[in-house]
């Protein structure tokens, strides 16, 4: 089984690329943080990322999705390494559950060592879950890249451009990896 990660700054286009790849028949595993935010906001918590339990909820949902995902080739919208980068960005201590999950995915080589790093588009469109300025997204992007490279992953840059071209760059790499 091959598992590939797409990561990058908020608003870089990961979800749009994944939708394209999904329509092309690839198995896609959704990002957990956005869903945790949406649920908690629906429960009346306007800024769930300020609570320590936020990171643990993301880790639990990521692992659940990873363990249930079908298919021989899977594309992930983020990973526990991204959640670790999020803890750093938010200034939260890394909970033991997150440390153990990063150790688990490293030890078991759950994900391919090449990570598709979706480069920013030069702007960020805010949403209820994405309340970040473009300048802050650049800082977050650096933290993500550092988190992956410090763990020995290779970040494969996916440059800004038309959606079809970005998806094709990933598809080409997937074909070469078989």
Automatic annotation (TrEMBL):
InterPro entries, per the entry:
NadR/Ttd14_AAA_dom (IPR038727), P-loop_NTPase (IPR027417)
Pfam families reported for this sequence = AAA_28 (PF13521)
Q: Which residues form the NadR/Ttd14 AAA domain?
A: 3-166
**Source organism, top-level taxon:** Bacteria
Q: What is this protein called?
A: AAA family ATPase
Species this chain originates from: Nonomuraea cypriaca
């Amino acid at each position: 089984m091959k598992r590939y990660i797409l990561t990058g700054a908020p608003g870089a286009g990961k979800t749009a690329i994944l939708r394209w790849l999904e329509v092309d028949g690839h198995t896609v595993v959704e990002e957990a943080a956005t869903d945790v935010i949406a649920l908690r906001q629906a429960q009346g918590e306007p800024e769930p990322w300020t609570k320590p339990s936020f990171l643990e909820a993301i880790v639990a949902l990521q692992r659940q999705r990873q363990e249930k995902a079908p298919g021989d080739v899977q594309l992930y919208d983020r990973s526990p390494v991204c959640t670790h980068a999020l803890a750093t960005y938010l200034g939260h201590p890394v909970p033991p559950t997150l440390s153990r999950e990063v150790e688990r995915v490293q030890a078991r080589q759950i994900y391919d060592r090449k990570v598709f790093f979706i480069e920013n588009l030069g702007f960020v469109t805010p949403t209820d879950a994405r309340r970040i300025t473009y300048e802050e997204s650049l800082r977050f992007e650096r933290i993500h890249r550092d988190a992956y490279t410090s763990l020995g992953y290779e970040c494969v840059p996916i440059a800004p451009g038309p959606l079809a071209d970005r998806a094709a760059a990933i598809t080409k790499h997937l074909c070469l990896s078989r």
